[in-house]
Write a structure and sequence with these properties.
Strand order of the largest sheet of chain B: 3-2-1-4-5-7-6
Helix content of chain B: 40-55%
Low-confidence stretches of chain A: 1-13, 367-373
Subunit structure (chain A): Forms a heterodimer with the catalytic subunit.
Number of strands of chain A: 30
Mean pLDDT of chain B: 75
Number of strands of chain B: 7
CATH topology of the largest domain in chain B: Rossmann fold
Largest sheet of chain B: 7 strands, mixed
CATH class of the largest domain in chain B: Alpha Beta
Oligomer: heterodimer
Main location (chain A): nucleus
Structural class of chain B: alpha/beta
CATH architecture of the largest domain in chain B: 3-Layer(aba) Sandwich
Subcellular location (chain A): Nucleus
Radius of gyration of chain A: 22 Å
Organism (chain A): Riccia fluitans
Protein name (chain A): tRNA (guanine-N(7)-)-methyltransferase non-catalytic subunit
Chain lengths: 448, 332
């Protein structure tokens, strides 16, 4: 078995973690997580934010995989491959809680009343923790679990009644948010089944006030699907392969591109989509009456770089980040605290060195001519005239980035994701070889 | 010797290439007695016929017309957590139950004119779902019979066969992860249908991983009864997550079960019996069924008597532990 494991072993690509971006709900600050580091820029004061952390361990030791603000914006949470979940107070940017979990964390979300922070792990379990600071030590409580499938995204619906989890086994599960989260969430409300590959991300479209929000999901089958999450009914399938912009993109590989990121504008009408190996952003418009998604615009970045994460802010500006950092696997071999500290310092160093591209797409209000359809029009903001200016870029990008370097890193991160998500396919030959090492065949081998 | 023969019969079914087969056969002939060799030869021949000509087997080969278990021996355990490589429907409407229960679907289309039409509509909608929106038709749901009982880990199908006669108008399906065993159950059901025309039309077997894919086969609230008979005990604490009854899996069972539906579990391992009972007790969507009701229930006595595993326990006069619970409405 060992030799077989080695052949599947970790290549460089396995250890790249994509850069993530998140914007404060009131638009006051932007956070980029790259590797084990958090880069925070305050747009009001126009300066970098320095975080303070007195919890143990005081810093992330491996790549951060999930970041999220709560709706009010007073909490922020970061979590990742080091199995730590950190909860931050965003006023002082100090860490108020650090919890260690048994498995790597893939996604973080807050309940709508901000009383609970929820996190999903690579083992398919979702845990919760109260956000309130207490004297006694907190233990995370398990809410629900998918059967041994990596949970890729975790969301709480806008009315706060359901938890939506998507996984690698093509499933989206809608569970009822329990009255007492410490006792778990035993009731499943529906399943949204229809994707033909791993589901990567979920978001909600439609106006929040109407209470008629629908779910959109992106997947490895290169589609974005629209669901009524209360019934599990699939309402529309948008296949990104049908778009010319996607087909004509210069990259040679024409295989299906996985949808890797979704973000919905604050009014719930525009869905921004990131695709694997696609050097731009697709903007889809959600038609509330027809319950459909239609293509609005494709924006290609000037650099030949594949974005890794995106987020709309409150003013419908779309923030995009491209980049990746090497994630240094600590594994379970670490024994001494010194070793752990050294590894953590190394991870922080790599994160500091890592470069990313940050870009901003803004809505242009000036309608071109009388054509009403052109009214909603998005444009890539010039680097020079970008919100936050030079200070923001130097904080979030972390140095003058050569776009080639960023492109290579981002691509490696995508490959790592695909490798993790897709089922390994073995040839008949490999299967036969594997059988030879099965215990019940040993007897026979010895005999030969 | 006995032990060895078992092993070889397994080998015969796994290798497909002819030369491998012959090489093995030569080796065996050198090692085994004349009688044993005859047995093996039979096995190999029968295997060839089995898949293609059901009827020939039903008439000849075996006096009873049923497939013989010895040719379907498989490992007792299978890893439920590994990635599956068998086809799984994307969602319940993609399941082709017609193939499993031809008699029932023939009836539905024969009696009701619209029946076939509604089914066709649903199919067409599924197709259109590839590139457009779908609108599920509630009409089709009413007309199409649905699977109501599921035997999870049905093994060699003993319970299904007994239940089939007790509830002739309910569709029931056995789910088994081990390919060869599910193959056996399919053959067994086929042979039974041939032997007793008009009977055993309501049972079938699926090769699938029930821990992972139940919602791909059944809609919310579809099942009336679920059976978990003599599941794998997974003694090690590390392996408890592989147990078929757990808090997280019970949430899935509660989802696919109708309110009032009954979940039957039985085991001969005391530790597992307690585990299943405590998990069911802890789950807010299940309540224990009272002893009086159990006495009335025709399924209860089958739990320990119908399956091969149950008979084995009875032969050794072992003790069994059962936990039978009802799906109740959520209090919230």
């Amino acid at each position: 078995m060992e030799d077989h494991g080695a052949s599947l072993g970790a290549g460089v690509g396995d250890m790249m973690a994509p850069a993530l971006i998140s914007v404060h709900p009131d638009g006051s600050c932007v956070v980029v997580a790259i590797g084990a580091g958090l880069r925070i820029f305050d747009l009001l004061r126009n300066e970098q934010v320095v975080v303070s952390d007195e919890t143990v361990p005081a810093r992330h030791g491996e790549a951060i995989r999930a970041i999220s603000f709560n709706d009010k914006g007073n909490f922020f949470s970061s979590a990742g491959d080091d199995k730590l979940v950190k909860l931050w107070n965003t006023e002082s940017w100090s860490c108020i809680k650090t919890i260690r979990l048994p498995k790597k964390v893939t996604s973080v979300a807050f309940s709508k009343d901000s009383k609970w922070v929820l996190f999903a792990d690579k083992f398919g379990a979702v845990y919760t923790l109260p956000t309130a600071v207490k004297e006694e030590k907190d233990e995370p409580a398990q809410l629900l679990a998918h059967c041994c499938s990596i949970i890729t995204d975790l969301e709480v619906t806008s009315e706060g009644k359901y938890i939506v989890t998507s996984d690698r086994d093509f499933k989206i599960r809608v569970s009822v948010f329990p009255a007492d989260p410490l006792k778990g969430a035993p009731e499943i409300w529906s399943y949204c089944l229809g994707h033909t590959s791993f589901v990567t991300c979920t978001a909600f479209v439609g106006s929040q006030t109407s209470g008629q929000q629908l779910l959109v999901s992106g997947s490895g089958d290169s589609t974005v699907r629209l669901w009524d999450y209360k019934t599990g009914k699939m309402l529309h399938v948008f296949d990104t392969n049908e778009l010319e912009a996607v087909r004509d993109d210069k990259t040679v590989d024409c295989a299906a591109r996985a949808v890797i990121g979704l973000s919905v504008s604050p009014d719930g009408s525009i869905v921004a989509v990131l695709l694997e190996r696609f050097t731009g952003v697709l903007l889809l418009e959600y038609d509330d009456l027809g319950k459909r998604l239609k293509h609005l615009q494709s924006i290609i970045l000037s650099e030949h770089v594949v974005p890794t994460s995106l987020a709309f802010d409150v003013a419908s500006r779309l923030w995009i980040v491209a980049g990746a950092a090497e994630s240094i696997e600590l594994g379970d071999q670490l024994v001494t605290p010194e070793e752990a500290a050294a590894a953590e310092a190394r991870a922080q160093m790599t994160a500091k060195m890592a470069v990313a591209h940050v870009r901003l797409i803004v809505r242009c209000s000036g309608a071109v001519g009388q054509d009403a359809e052109k009214a909603a029009h998005y444009e890539l903001s010039e680097k020079e005239s970008m919100l936050g200016g030079e200070a923001l870029l130097s904080t979030l990008e972390g140095g003058r980035a050569d776009s080639g370097e960023v492109a290579v890193a981002a691509e490696a991160a995508e490959q790592a994701m695909r490798k993790l998500m897709s089922k390994r396919q073995y040839t008949l030959q490999e299967r036969e070889n594997r059988k030879r090492f099965r215990n019940d065949k040993k007897f026979e081998r010895n005999e030969v | 010797m006995q032990h060895r023969r078992k092993k070889y019969s397994t080998v015969f079914h796994e290798e497909t290439e002819k030369d491998v087969l012959f090489a093995r056969a030569r080796k065996i002939s050198a090692q085994l007695s004349q009688k044993a060799m005859a047995d093996q030869g039979n096995g190999a021949r029968e295997k060839g016929k089995k898949r293609t000509e059901h009827s020939t087997i039903a008439q000849g080969g075996d006096q009873k017309g049923l497939p013989r278990k010895r040719f379907y021996r498989a490992r007792a355990h299978s890893n439920p957590l590994s990635d599956s490589h068998f086809p799984v429907p994307n969602n319940p409407c993609e399941c082709d139950w017609k193939e499993h229960f031809p008699a029932f679907f023939k009836d539905a289309t024969g009696e009701v004119e619209n029946g076939s039409c509604a089914t066709e509509n649903m199919k067409a909608e599924n197709r259109s779902s590839e590139n457009g929106a779908i609108v599920p038709s509630s009409q089709a749901e009413k007309l199409e019979p649905k699977v109501r009982f599921a035997d999870v880990g049905c093994g060699f199908g003993g319970l299904l066969v007994k239940l089939s006669v007790l509830f002739p108008d309910k569709l029931m399906v056995g789910m088994e992860l081990r390919d060869k065993v599910s193959e056996y159950v399919k053959e067994r059901i086929h042979a039974l249908r041939v032997k007793h025309p008009g009977q055993y039309e309501n049972i079938s077997c699926l090769r699938t991983n029930a821990m992972k894919y139940l919602p791909n086969y059944f809609e919310k609230g579809q099942l009336e009864k679920m059976f978990f008979l003599f599941p794998d005990p997974h003694f090690k604490e590390k392996n408890h997550r592989r147990r078929i009854i757990s808090q997280t899996l019970l949430a899935e069972y509660a989802y696919i079960m109708a309110i009032g539906g009954i979940i039957y579990t039985i085991t001969d391992v005391e530790e597992l019996g307690e585990w299943m009972k405590s998990n069911l007790d802890a789950h807010p969507l299940f309540e224990p069924v009272s002893e009086d009701e159990l006495d009335q229930d025709r399924c209860v006595e089958l739990l320990s008597s119908a399956t091969e595993e149950g008979q084995k326990v009875a032969r050794n006069s072992g003790e069994t532990f059962r936990a039978i619970y009802r799906r109740i409405e959520s209090g919230a």
